[in-house]
């Protein structure tokens, strides 16, 4: 069975942390709570578990926005939901620009919070699946020879076998054989799928 998602709650309000923890646990989530951004950074999550981060904006020490920025530098890719009593528009815009999935204003309705957390967990699951797929593609791409990589790039560029043969100074039969090797190693069945693979690899390296 899949382990329950872990929701990390960072807020200096003791009563709110307790209330949110009970609500999320009742909904089937595991919960870790922190009284400050610094406390979270002393024991950051490993990233192995699905989950998200419920984050207050204004706290003693580093703010929620500071922690959001630190997550990027640390490579922690947990989706962030801001939960703040200070829901002014400029702050909300900064939070969303920094990649937050949602910005909720306290007091927040139970169903609104649970819906937002549910979406965040789904987003995290999708992100992990995509990273896993790209990792597999990178491994497969590493199996290509230098010539096969060149053939791959020319195919993706829309070149026909005859054109590729002319550019490389080989026979069309040789190109067909190399094309088949590229397809087999990358798990593709046609040029369109190779194009999608190229786009995913490009996005990974961007």
What is the 3D form? Answer: elongated
The CATH topology name of the largest domain reads Rossmann fold
Distance between the termini: 35 Å
Ranges with pLDDT <50 over ≥5 residues? Answer: none
Q: How many domains, as an integer? A: 2
> Within the largest sheet, what's the order of strands?
2-1-3-4-5
Number of helices: 9
Helix content: 55-70%
**Known CATH architecture of the largest domain:** 3-Layer(aba) Sandwich
Radius of gyration: 23 Å
The profile of the biggest β sheet is: 5 strands, parallel
Order of helices and strands: EHEHEHEHEHHHHH
- CATH level 1 name of the largest domain: Alpha Beta
**Overall pLDDT score:** 87
Give the amount of beta strand, in percent.
5-15%
CATH H-level superfamily title of the largest domain:
Response regulator
Characteristics:
206 residues, five-stranded parallel β-sheet, Rossmann fold, alpha/beta, 5 strands
Overview of the molecule:
This protein has 206 residues and is an alpha/beta fold. It has 2 domains: 6-128, Response regulator (Rossmann fold, 3-Layer(aba) Sandwich); 142-205, Winged helix-like DNA-binding domain superfamily/Winged helix DNA-binding domain (Arc Repressor Mutant, subunit A), CATH 1.10.10.10. The protein is 58% helix and 12% strand. The protein has helices at 14-26, 37-42, 64-74, 89-97, 110-141, 146-156, 161-168, 172-186, 191-205; strands spanning 6-10, 30-34, 51-55, 80-84, 102-105. Strands 2-1-3-4-5 form a 5-stranded parallel beta sheet, sandwiched between helices. Helix 4 (89-97) links the parallel strand 4 (80-84) and strand 5 (102-105). The protein is elongated and about 75 Å long. It starts with 5 loop residues before the first strand and ends with a helix. The model has no long low-confidence stretch (mean pLDDT 87).
